[in-house]
Amino acid sequence: SNMTSFFAKLEARVNEVDSLLCVGLDPHSKEISSDDVKTPEDKCAAAFTFCKTIIDATLPYAACYKPNAAFFEALGAQGEATLERVLKEIPSNVPILLDVKRGDIGSTAAAYAEACYEHLKADAVTLSPLMGWDSVSPFVTESYADKGAFLLCKTSNPGSNDILALNLANGETLYERIAKLAQDWSTSSGASLGLVVGATDSVALANVRKAAGEKAWILAPGVGAQGGDLEAALRAGMNSAGTAMLIPVSRGISRAEDRAAAAKELRDKINETRNKLKSEESSSSGDAIQPYQKEFLEFSLSEGVLKFGSFVLKSGRTSPYFFNAGLFATGAALDKLGRSYASAIMAAPQL
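RESULT FIELD:
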């Protein structure tokens, strides 16, 4: 199909604005109430203006937007129309993650999917996976194969330990099982599935990254208002390329004096940690050549074992170097070769 998958769209946007910041659009009644706001129409107008000003201020720094459906439903009969109006203000290349946390099966799930995608034109949704694959698939397969879903895995609220952190008979936690299932379901169906893991629990983040693999995207709420430590969360949750993690922030931006500055600062703070981790990775990943390796290469060159140039190999392939180990023919050469092997074994990270 020529449809772009949700994660391809997200990654393109992440690269375009160099940002892992996901901007929340949450018009709490507290945020939009004032003396002028009296009628339900006033409330809807205030909610629209609240969201529109956030979008305008944060667009250069937002990897995606996450409107929470609840605050629009709370506006009453015109809430859905207000949300639809808000989402039309977001440029089409910026992904919309609709936070609805649905969890149902069959025709009901299909109806929820239709509401999210046909009317609101969302690119992805949040889902509760506790009813299993058949509660997830209507949102991410068949005509919605280009859409994405983030499954609640280990949420940032204290009560998440009541159920999501329970140990299963095989020793893994329920949230680790959810992370593995998300990977299995993605692999078997081609569906775009991410996971919601609270930024407040870096142990869970590390466990989920391990269980779900390098490719899975993690949405990590709880930085800012809920007090999650940004650097600890990123260290635990990002993949080795320093990505595949979205940091959603709502109040940290909406309540700032200068929303654009707040969004920029958050994006930059996230990137500072990303760059710090990347430079730590590269300095510890052994890209630098070790003394025993340098010695071995120089020795191989001096013995004529290693030559650089253009060589046609038996396979017909042309190689920029040729290594003829048969030329390690003297006792002294073999002694050196043995020492080099021993150094390599001693330097192995597995030891």
